[in-house]
Amino acid sequence: MIWPDIAALLLTRLEWAILSYFLFVNGFYALQLISAGWDMWEYTLKARGANRWRVLGSRVAPRISMIVPARNEAATIAQSVQALLALHYPNLEIVVVNDGSGDGTLDVLREEYDLVPIHPIYQKHIQSRPVRGLYWSRRHANLLLVDKYVGGKADAQNAGLNLATGELICVSDADTLIEPDALQRMVRPFLEPDVVAVGGTIRVANGSLVRSGRVTTPRAPRTPLAGFQAIEYLRAFLFGRLGWNRLGGNLIISGAFGLFRREAFIAVGGYAHDTVGEDMEVIVRLRRHGREHNRPRRVAFIPDPVAWTEVPESLAALGRQRDRWHRGLAQVMWRHRRLCFNPRYGVLGMVVYPLFLLVELCAPVVEAMGLVGLLAGLLLGVVNLPFAFLFFLVAYGVNVVLTLVTLVLEEVNFHRYEGLGDRLILLAWAVLEPLGYRQLTVLWRLRGLLNFARGRTDWGAMERRGFTGSARPTSRSPSGPSRTTAA
Amino acid sequence: MTADALLVPVVIIECILAMDALMVFLGHGLWLRWHRSRSSARVGQARAALATALDDPSPPEALLRLVRALSPRWQVRLLVDAARNLSGDRRERISMLAREAGLVDGARAWCHSRFWWRRLHGARLLTVLGHGEPVMPALLADPHPAVRAQAVEWAADHPTPGVIDALLYLLDDESGLTRYTVRDSLLRMGDAVIEPLVSCLSRHTSRQVEAALEVATGLADPRFLAPALAACSNRLPRARVLGATLLGAVGGRDGAKALMALLADPEPGVRASASQALGRLGYWPAAPRLAPLLRDLVWSVRREAGLALRAFGAPGVLYLRRLLSDDDPFAVDMARQILDLPDVVWQPASPSP
User: Fold this and answer.
1) Does B16 touch chain A (CB under 8 A)?
2) Could A118 and B28 be called an inter-chain contact, meaning their C-beta atoms sit closer than 8 Å?
């Protein structure tokens, strides 16, 4: 056998392996879609006509502490805090953590909210960088400011956690736009004692009309990059995470907006400092700890749109973000490798972990191998052109069908995009997204894997345009909705 | 069959699915827009007529005609929106209108459906529109938790002895949603539940007592003194914690004595709760018993004892100053922190029970 024959044989085998992977992954997606549809149906029936406002007058509503880390947010922090104070929830505490800002964030808050120093006696459950001062607002009795030395987002959240007094902890970014009644919707799953964390749908705010920290008119993004991400977010939340809900496999609650049971969060030691995927890592730890100690461990997801975030609009920033997300995923999978096919952890070890490994972590490798193998096969004449074209059509078709069904779920249940123009724009992004953009994300995720192998742990910088349209650089994490389940 | 021949039907199926999804996506939006535009004029007219008719005591025949001309969905929306924001006579009129329009009968029929979502929808309508008797009390024992919780929500406005007994029975329901709604409804009922709750607390010794004690703490009535004293000797630590909290809410000399006895409880949560309750009552004769608790091994007990001493004023501060020269470094540290507290004190709320 000569070398070209060996290469041809290898390529044929590779193509079969990739075809099997393709069938397996898409079969799993179909299952996830059915699960998501079922969950959405049940959720909508339960929510139809419910009097959510009743919780506002309830004396037994669980206390929520919202922890908001802020670093160099002087330009927007006052408005962000104002929007949080206006959230419709009766028993809410806002804990803003100034993570060593050097731009006067602390001064802005002191002036705006009439902050005075306080000396509460509290227990440091979780280690964090030293706290320089604690302030309490004379204007809003439920506003507390923690001023600490710089230590990163996870460290700031841990510092806030020590001071928080709520039964439930809400983590959010200073620039996440939260729906006014989001907490009322998010709190419902916690009425069951086995739930430790709840996430909701995060949407892309780029292009929408924003007033006073609220998305007043949701609109489809007009720029391709934001538009593709809007489609990705819808797919990731409405079909990815909702699909996992019934299958018991939710491993991610977005760092941009999530609700946790404080007791469980403290029991696992809060956020880890040494990973860039801390939002996923803490969920895996919560579930693992629950299993190991026979404690509550259910992670729930509600499909309601609860918050809006700004996504990167430059290729460089988006590339860095995806690199970091995939690096974070790899770090978490590696750190918790003992879960893999470990019957002690039940569904988490036997199903969820292996699927995340295969479907999420390895996807870019397999996709890249498929693309390279296809090109090589065509060059060597191992794969014939009509087959390659048909296979491409099938793969493209699966992607588009999954996205369109997700859009249907959104339209029928939430109908957030009112205008016909917006729906047509979304459709355009849905059809174009698999052509080029998806391949780019494969490259970025591969780079993330490579950087993980090199041991890189930095967050990278991101440029945000801001909801008012002016560009402002920031060095902190974008803390968007984390990884997305790409179809 | 070749691979090519297999792929062609797959592509065709995908095309069909994509076209279907596309039609639903665009069609639904267009239908919704058409439906809204078609109904908006009539709904606006009915809404305006409703606003006028609410203060008019004459039979609202014209309004009834307008309401009946709307689709059932819009009828529900119109009347439910109005009923949620009204009370008293106006709400009664909405309720009467809903009955005349046939919505109440429809909702009652749904409450007997074998599908839980129909029962839930019916229960929700009857909660807002009224006329829930005799259907709703039966739903308090519904097999679906969401329906049960809705019936409990309805019960908050109907504090009859039978309904209250049913709610007390549901205090330890298997569903968290139902338990939450029961506690909320009992608190909303207020005075009407006190006697039944006192009797419930004297009858039961299980998890139901814990939930009942939480409700009693929210109501804070002196009639709960006897059950609170009984709870303080309950074998369950959680019940003793709640008993101490309740005593802190209802007060009384007997209560303060029982709280002082709980300062020696083996459970740290009970000691902390008793300290907090004594601080809340400002019962300064307890200061000599609280001071040694600043040497307790558990931080939360030391903190609550220290804060209670501070709440007593001069007698408590005297004990705190003495503790500054104590042999136990933890007691010294806590006393120092308490004495260092400035006038503006931010007190974190105790975690919800």
Assistant:
1) no
2) no
* A398-415 confidence digits (pLDDT tens): 999 999 999 999 999 988
- For the cut 90, the answer to whether the pLDDT of residue B79 exceeds it is no
Whether B9 has its CB under 8 Å from any CB of chain A: the answer is no
- For residue A215, list its beta bridge partners: A210
pLDDT tens track for A107-150: 999 999 999 888 888 888 899 999 999 998 989 989 999 999 99
Say whether A60 and B3 touch across the interface (CB within 8 A): no
Place of tokens 């736009």: A177
B218 interfaces chain A, CB cutoff of 8 Å: yes
**Phi and psi at residue B326, in whole multiples of 5°?**
-75, 160
Backbone torsions φ then ψ of A383, nearest 5 degrees: -105, 130
Number of Cβ atoms within 10 Å of the Cβ of B309: 30
Paired sense of beta strands A143-148 and A92-99, if any: parallel
Distance CA A413, CA A41 (A): 9
Residue A39, both tokens: 């969950």
Q: Is B118 exposed, middle or buried (0-12, 13-18, 19+ CB in 10 A)?
A: middle
The string of pLDDT tens digits covering residues B120-170 is 999 999 999 888 888 999 999 999 999 999 999 999 999 999 999 999 999
Which ipTM score applies to this complex?
0.84
pLDDT category, B228, cuts 50, 70, 90?
very high
Is B124 in Cβ contact with A50 (below 8 Å)? yes
Contacts of B183 by beta carbon, 8 Å cutoff, 6+ apart: A60, B171, B211, B214, B215, B218
Query: What tokens appear for A325 in the block?
Result: 């997300």
Whole-model pTM above 0.95? no
Verify whether the Cβ–Cβ distance A393 to B146 is below 8 Å: no
Q: Mutate which of A188, A191, A192, A195 to test chain B, going by most B C-beta atoms within 10 A?
A: A191
